[in-house]
Amino acid sequence: MVAMRIKTKDGIMAELEVFEKLPLGGMNIREIPKILDAEAPAICREMLARQVAALKPCGVSLPADHVVLMLGGSNGILRAVAIQLLFGEKVPVYAVHYDRRMMIGSYHVDAIKELAAQRGVDTQWFNTDATDPKAIDEVIAELKKKYKVVHLINGIAAGATKRYKEHGSINVRDLDVEYNKVLQYPDFSKLENIRKFGLVEVPLADDADIERTNKFMGTSTTIWAEPLAAAGLLVKGTSIVAFADYDFEKDDPVYGMGPLAGAKILQRESMNQVREKLGARAVRLCYPAMDTTAIGAIPGGLLMFAVSTQVLAEKGKFKNLMALAAETMAIFKPGYADAELRTDADFQSILAEMHKREDELTPGNIREKLALLPTIDLP
Question: CATH assignment of 3-375?
Answer without folding.
Answer: 3.40.50.720
